Automatic annotation (TrEMBL):
Top-level taxon of origin: Eukaryota
Keywords tagged on the record: Membrane, Transmembrane, Transmembrane helix
Localization: Membrane
GO MF: acetyltransferase activity
Protein name: Pmr5/Cas1p GDSL/SGNH-like acyl-esterase family protein
Record field: transmembrane: 6-26, 33-54
Protein's GO biological process: xylan biosynthetic process
GO cellular component: Golgi apparatus; membrane
Transmembrane helix found in the keyword field: yes
Length: 424
């Protein structure tokens, strides 16, 4: 409730403002030009004195003229959330070409195609990115993917998007070398892609706390994922959750307090497991639906994901693999390339959305600083000096003295103190 003093102040302000205007209007009613001139002068004077206490014009203009690219669906808009939660709402269908082989080249199963529903794609602006669009989005960036075979398949999808078909095919034997790391680069765009073999959560924690702390800078995009090896060898959801909490804590330590885009962090979820298709007795015994649900709960409840206060956005491989179905897997665990293509495009669309939100928050903050600076001119350059600007859709901090490819090279050649290779 407004205090009596505030109410009295409002009444006094109204008297001071409107009584002179009324008297002026009564005396100047015979001269309309003079009356309106006087009214305009008084209104402008009041506006000038009140403007430091009201939102600045740039702030209002940014809010009005820069809406989110594509309004959210009705249920998203009503809750005030962004379109990011709807990224995994993809539809699966049989590929139109009956002779299409599956993405791993075997041709043994009918290919499946994925897409966003047209209404959702139109409302939220979701789109498959071409090679040029993806290269522009990741321009100058260092992308690191660490984990097990699921992470390796995501790297393959990324290489197939960024490289021409011949180059991507030539990279596969090296990428799939057993229990080894891999690096690729797109020199024309300054993009570097690192895969780190890290099948256990302890490997990921060590990567975050030790190896990346010594690197010239952190990756611009960091994708982590694990759980399959833990489920097979430890089969203990509680200890898996404890390990995830350590990963989350280590990941938070990478976030800079400076007003620059933080590393874009994604967690690669566990795939849907088709138990009867698993290729060993040990896998069929330990990797069942009950254990998978328990492991998924730990991912959701251990402060790892954004919805639980964590730094990672979930790439829900489980939902996508279940949607694609059993026809998309040969061994009940590893799925065809079109699944990881969907995962990749969900990640890229989330990156574009994250970047847009960061830019909007930056513009709003600058507008607020402009408003403050009208009252405190000495701080006029503070906001401009603090913030970094980025080219359209570029994720890389170009004020950094180290490019994505250079950072990756330095990290791999001299900065890694501990080998993450895990032996079977």
């Amino acid at each position: 409730m407004v205090s009596a003093a505030a109410q009295a102040g409002v009444v006094a302000a109204c008297v001071v403002l409107f009584v002179p205007m009324g008297l002026a209007g009564w005396h100047l009613s015979r001269n309309k030009v003079l009356f309106f001139s006087g009214a305009l002068f008084v209104s402008l004077a009041v506006g000038v004195h009140l403007s430091p206490y009201l939102p600045s014009l740039p702030y209002l203009a940014a809010s009005f003229f820069l809406p989110h690219p594509g309004a959210a669906p009705a249920d998203a808009a009503s809750s005030g959330s962004s379109c990011v939660p709807f990224l995994h709402r993809v539809s699966w269908s049989d590929a139109s070409s009956s002779g299409a082989a599956d993405a791993d080249g075997s041709g043994a199963r009918a290919a499946r195609a994925w897409s966003w529903p047209p209404s959702l794609a139109s409302a939220c602006g979701f789109a498959r990115l071409s090679r040029d669009d993806a290269s522009l989005l990741l321009n100058g960036s260092w992308v690191m993917v660490a984990g097990d075979s699921q992470a390796r398949l995501l790297v393959l999808a990324l290489l197939r998007l960024l490289l021409d078909p011949a180059a991507a095919a030539a990279a596969e034997p090296e990428l799939f070398r057993r229990h080894s790391d891999y690096r690729a680069a797109v020199p024309s765009r300054g993009i570097s892609v690192d895969f780190v073999w890290a099948p256990f959560e302890a490997n990921l924690t060590r990567l975050l706390r030790e190896d990346l702390r010594l690197a010239p800078r952190v990756p611009d995009v960091l994708v982590l994922g694990s759980g399959l090896w833990h489920m097979l060898h430890a089969t203990d959801a509680a200890s898996y959750g404890d390990a995830l909490a350590s990963v989350a804590g280590a990941a938070r330590s990478l976030r800079s307090p400076l007003p620059v885009p933080p590393p874009h962090m994604f967690w690669l979820g566990l795939p849907h497991l088709v138990n009867h298709m698993l290729n060993t007795d040990a896998k069929r015994a330990h990797m069942n639906a009950t254990m998978l649900r328990a492991y998924d709960r730990e991912v959701e409840q251990r402060g790892l994901l954004r919805g639980d206060g964590g730094p990672f956005l979930l790439l829900d491989v489980g939902k996508l693999t279940q949607g694609c179905g059993q026809q998309c897997t040969a061994d009940g665990m590893h799925y065809d390339g079109n699944v990881y293509d969907a995962v990749l495009h969900i990640m890229l669309n989330a990156l574009a959305t994250d970047y847009w939100h960061w830019k909007m928050n930056l513009m709003m903050e600058d507008a607020k600083q402009d408003c403050i600076c009208q009252r405190a001119p000495a701080t006029a350059g503070a906001s401009e000096a603090a913030h970094q600007d980025f080219p359209k859709l570029a994720l890389h901090n170009h004020n950094s003295k180290v490019s994505g490819s250079e950072a990756s090279k330095d990290w791999s050649s001299g900065w890694r103190a501990v080998s993450l290779t895990a032996r079977a």
